[in-house]
Structure formats: structure tokens, C-alpha cells
Amino acid sequence: MKFNSGRISEHPILIKGANMQFNYQQQPGRTLINRNLIIDDKEPLMTIITPYYNAGKFIRQTANCVFNQTFPYYEWIIVNDGSTNKEDVDVLDLLVQEDSRVKVFHKENGGPGSGRNMAIRESTTGLIVILDADDLIDPTYLECAYFTLQTNPDAQWCYSDSVGFNKAEHLWKYPFITERLKKNNFLLSIAVIRKSALAKVGLYDERVKHAYEDWHLWLKLLKEGMYPVHMNYYGTWYRKSDDGVYGQVNNDEGKYGKAIEFVKEVSKFVDDTIKAIEYPLANNNNFKKPVSWTWDKKAILGDEKCKILMIIPWMTVGGADSYNLDLVANIDKSKFEVSIITTIPSQSEWRQKFEEHVTDIFDLSTFLHVENWCAFIHYFIKSRGIDIVMISNSYYGYYLIPWLRKEFPNISIVDCLHMEEWYWRSGGYARTSGVLGDILDRSYVSTEHLKTLMVEYFKRNETEIKVIKSGVDEKYFDPAIIKAGEIKAEVGISFEEPVVLYLCRMHQQKRPFLMIDIAEELRKRIQNVKFFAVGNGPELGLLKSEVRKREMENTLHFFGTRTDLPKFYKDSDVTLICSIKEGIAVITYESLAMGVPVVSSDVGAQRELIDDTVGCVLPIMQEEEKDFADIHYSEIEILQYVDAIEEILKDKVKYGEMQKECRLKILENHTKTIFINTWQKEFLKLKSGYWKGKREKLNEVFKLIPNLADDYFTIFLEMNLAEFQYSAMSVRLRPIEEFIDKAKNRQVFIWGASNGGKKTLDHLRNANISGTVAFIDNDPNKAGSLFCELPVYSPKVLEELLVEDKKPFVFIGSMYVESIKSSLENIGLKANVDFADCLYIL
């Protein structure tokens, strides 16, 4: 049996995580938040244990991570393992003085395992949190771990995905495969383990002072049939260094050999079939009614601030998400405390953006079964003393409203809407808001158009709806402070070439294929015109394929998700919006603030912001409900956009005047200051009980029909099962899209004709690359009968391609990993290649 390094290897057999933009400098613990949480119950529920050896230069940041935890019911035991520097020991005394939950013990040097064991023996709780003195944890890590283990009583430990930082930077997100863990330690030392489980396996083994003691521990737990929970978010940060214990082992052949023998002696007894609980998991609720947990501790947040819980679907790129982000980023933190709960499995590309402004962020799909979400929300409202629950674009949140109103008769419950969607559930969230309007205190909408529709079509009370239009940060989106030409230089085009910006989520709703048609026609008139398509989404693979098919790569440039948006506006001459559905697109505000005219479809409330002084709105020649997914557009509709863009660009004097009007329109009516001040006034009115009378009447009604509120929510969960399963699968398969995009014209293989292979095939077909896909099987003839529409090869084909220096991508079904790995190693040796950037396990 071949063993790899106990720590993160430089060339793992898996590609490291999804290729998302990640800020490795945004480390937890850089500052102490000082939230002054109220802890009325001094009895801890978890014990953090930290072995410590001359780690004074790191412990402050780790301590900040501990003190910043949103779940304050812990004790922190630090064991000084014979530190030789007095200054490093003195730092520990300061921590004890700073917080009474810190306890320090001193012992002679015995290695990390020895230090941890001493801490475990001194602990007073049933949950042990392993945290080294130089590693970091997200502020919500303890809270997520506590409740994931409480709701999975048979699991004995839990861990999260991790961020590597310092010497090397990477995202570490792997599926849990026991057979692979026996040979390669893809886990970190940071975890939460039941004390009873540790006692059963004899704690950490202290026979070898410097070894892979954490890897050894995981295998000992598995040997006893104890499985973990894998929380699907980046909750831990592992500091990469050469002078740490693992660096010492990896760089010393003698220590390395002993450490591997140490692991081998237990790995041979581990059952390969043991599986972890890995989130997100499909909802199999089976008509279970909503429940709540017993939580009798005092709220940890005082009454000094107005406390708002936002229930939203996700934290990804989009107009509604931008609206939410602007709200939490700019609200007065001295007067308002905002928390966020999300309810749809997602990559959460913008999570870090929200984390800059919000401490309490919980993606329920990453650490809880769906049946426990309502209980966590119930607990959260009680544990924080929430004043206002605001729901935006979360179906789960909407259908929970009657139950929340029954359970919390005195809090304010409101919603925030951005558009109606007739193609989806007969109006989308607007329809649901209409139905629940009698229970909501108030509804907020981002356009006058939507308010009119809510009143006239969904029969809402006009006095209970308020318009708060989005605002733009006029100081951030200021053309005077942005250097021109950087994006053009990035793609190698000249400063003089005109650019049309298409910035959105690449989704059917935005009609991106119409954008391609417009680009193709416009370049016939303006030969040097360029289109910048910025954003990700489910249609991105198809769009790129279509652009290649039409040989438009020199005209249309794709950029994926970007954060430097002002640079794109600065280098663009016109912003194009051709959606079939919008409220008011956030990019409309941003574009105008940057002095860039907008050509838009006459959709939603775009007309409220765009007139002929700043661009134009054009009629939609498709019907939303009937033609939503139709990518074939009339010549008349295509040419009207071409004509409009050409008209704006041809007169430079008129264009200059239009640029001035764009900026002026924002400064006069749509700044971020106006937006935030309006929201803050509304929140304070809600907290003061402005609509208390309506709530009191509803309370009497719900006393008569408590079961109806429960069942209303239950039926929704069953109806929403398929959509949740799709979202959960998309999270698991999302990295495939990014790897395929890298592959370009490389051959893509699926090895392992299982359900995972079939799902991957469906995903690849959706990306419109099925022509490059084939299967690999040791018995091609047998496998060919399962997938007769695609070619099936023997593993020999990989060797041939590799010898020709054509690296393929190979997706492997998890159940086939070990049986296939030996074949891959043999092929790699023969072809003299490293497979590290070619493989992905499903």
C-alpha cells in the first residue's frame, strides 16, 4: 500500500477546490470584534484545546478568532508544552487576564499529541475543539459544529472545508473517502470531536513525539466505526509553514518513515465502506412539522441596537444580492446589528463580501438537515433577541412566515421584493408575498412598477408597501478616479476600439444569446467593436461554445465573475441590458454613475431610470411565459439594439453630453446615502412597534389555527424537494464547469459508469460539450451497452494521449477511486506525466 504525506501534498491526486475568486488576506482574527456578548450561563458547552510551544507570534490572531466566536459557551484550555521563550509564556498570562474562559496549564515538552491529551483530560465538556496555536477559525465555526453534532447524534466528529494560507494559498474542499484517507491525509488537525469518542480510542497516541498524530487519530476513530460530519463551508484556516511539526516530519526522512509506519499499523484495520455525512443533503422531510429546540439561555445581544435577521437564498452574484450587500455594508453599525441566514445550496461566491460587514452568517445547507432549519432559525431569533425578520427571495423563508408569526408574536416580519416573474410559479416571490401580505407587517419593493403590480394584481394594501430604490456608491463608482485602459490592455485591444459592456449572471432571464446576436450584427457595421461579457452562470458554457462556433472570439470576451467593476465601466462606451425580466437592474445605477449610457429592454422598471438623455429602452418582442427559454430572436428585435447602440456611438458631441447626464441623474436622486437613510428610518419604525396593532390581531387568529401554520410550511417542503435536490447537486458538480472551461479543446473522459457518471454526463451536456466526452472502462464492450451514444475506451487511450502531450480531463466516480488509481499511476509512469491537474473525483 503506497502512502502519501500526512499533510497537504503539493501535488494531490485531486484538483484543489473550485476556481473561485478568494481573498486570502481576509483572514479571521485580524482584529478583535468586541461585541460584548451577554453570557448569563457560565457553564461551557464546548472545550477548545490548544497545544502551545513558542507560538507567541501567532497566538494573538488565534485568540481573536476564539474571542470573536458567535457561540460564547466554551472554555479554552491552552497547554504550554515546555516553551523555551519567556516572552511566549508571558503572552499566555495576558490571555488568562483578558478572558476568564481561558485556562493555561504547563508541562514538559512532549509534542502536540501529549499537549492535547493533557487538555482533553482537564476539559469539563463533552465536545473537544482541536485548534493549534497558529491556526484560525471562522467566527461561526463553534456554533455550526455544535449544532451539526447535536442534530447528528451518531456522528462522533465533524470538520469543515479549509483555507490554506501563509507559505502556500489554496482552498481545500474534498469529498470524504475512507479508502483514500487510509493512504493520503486529506483532513486537517482542526475538528470537533466527542470526548467519549476520544476516550474510546485512547486519545492521541504519544509513542512518537513528532508524527502524523491527527491522521493517526482519524484512522483510529474510523477503525471503531465512528464517522464524521463534513460541513460544506470554509470554516477553518490552516497556516502552511516549514518550521511547524509537520514540516519537520515531511523534511526528515527518518521521522517521516516512523510517522508512516505509525499510520500503517492502524489503517489496515479500517473498513473502506465507512461514509461521512456530507452537506448539502437532499430534503427527505416526509411531511414533518416544523419543530423548535429548547434553548433557555439569555439572548447574547443586548437591546442597544436594532437587531435584524435577513433570510436570503444565497450570497452570489446578482442584482438582489447586490441590493442586500449594499444594505449591510452601509448601515450604521453603531445602531444596527444585521445577521444573515441563507437557504439554498450555493457556491456563495460573495460570502466574503458579506463577511466584511456581518459576523453572524449561516448557510443552513452547509451544516444542517433541512428538517432542522426551522429549529435553528427559531433558536437564532431567541439567542440574539431579534427585533426584525426580513425575508428576500427565499421561498423557505416565505413559507415559514405563518409559523414564525405564531411562535414570535411580538417581532416584526417584513419582506423585500425586486421583481415579478411570470415564467416562474405564476409571479415568483411577488405572488408569494401577495398571498402572505395579510401576515407580513410591511413589504418593501425596489420599484414603483412593482408596487403598482402588488396592489392591482396581487391585491395588497397600498399603505403596507413602500418603495426603496437601490442607490449606488457615487464615490466608488466615480469615473474621475478610475484609470482608463486597464481592461482593454488585459485582453490586448487598443484604447480607441469601442466596447459594449454586458454585465450580469449568465442566465436565460438575461437573454445572453440575444447579446451574441446583437454583437454579431453590430460588428458588421462597426468592425472594431468589442463586447465584454462579465459574470458567471448556468449558460456560460453554452455561450462560450456558441461564440467559438460563430468564430467571434476576437469580438466577444468573457471575464467570469470580477470584483473590479468600475474598471469595466471605465473602459466601456455603452452598457447593454436585454433581459426578459428585471426589476431595475443594479448595473443600470452603476453604469449611469460611471457616465456610461444604457441600452435596455423595456422590462420591469427600467423606464423609471432610463430616458433618452441617458440611453434608451426598447420593446421586448417575446412573451415572458411562452418564450422565456427560446433563444431564437426576430431580426427586428436584434436590429433595434444594433441601431440604438450605433446611434449613441456615432455622435461624439452628443455622447459627451449624455455621459454628463448619466452621472447627474444618480447624484440627484439615487445615491447610497439616500438609500441607507431611508432603510434605517424604516427599521427604527418597525422596532418601535409602529405596526403593533396588526400583529396583535394576528396573534388572536393564530391561537385558533396553530396547526394550519405548521402544515402550510410542511407542504412547501415536500413541493420544493426536487428544486432543493437540484441545487444540492449543482453545488457538488459546480467545479466541473470550471475545469471544463480550462480544458478548452482537451478530451474529457468519465471513468466509472455509475450514477455519478450519468449525472456528470448530464452536466457536461448542459455545458454543450458532449461532442468531446467519452467514457473509459476496463471492459469497453460491456460499458458500451450502457452508454451506446458515446464512445467507450480502455485505459490505454490515456497513455496514448499523454505520450502525445495531450492532457485529458478525467472525472472519476468516487466508488472507483482506488481501483482506478493504480491504473492511473502505471499510465502516468509510462507517459512520464503528473496527473494532478487532470483529475476530479465526483
TrEMBL record:
Pfam families, A to Z: Glycos_transf_1, Glycos_transf_2
Signal peptide: none
All residue ranges annotated as the Glycosyl transferase family domain in the record: 486-618
Start and end residues of each Glycosyltransferase 2-like domain: 47-172
Keywords from the named record: Transferase
GO molecular function: hexosyltransferase activity
Keyword Transferase appears in the UniProt entry: yes
Top-level taxon in the UniProt lineage: Bacteria
Matches recorded under Gene3D superfamilies: Glycogen Phosphorylase B, NAD(P)-binding Rossmann-like Domain, Spore Coat Polysaccharide Biosynthesis Protein SpsA, Chain A
Protein name: Glycosyltransferase involved in cell wall bisynthesis
Organism expressing this protein natively: Pelosinus propionicus DSM 13327
Classification of source organism: Bacteria, Bacillati, Bacillota, Negativicutes, Selenomonadales
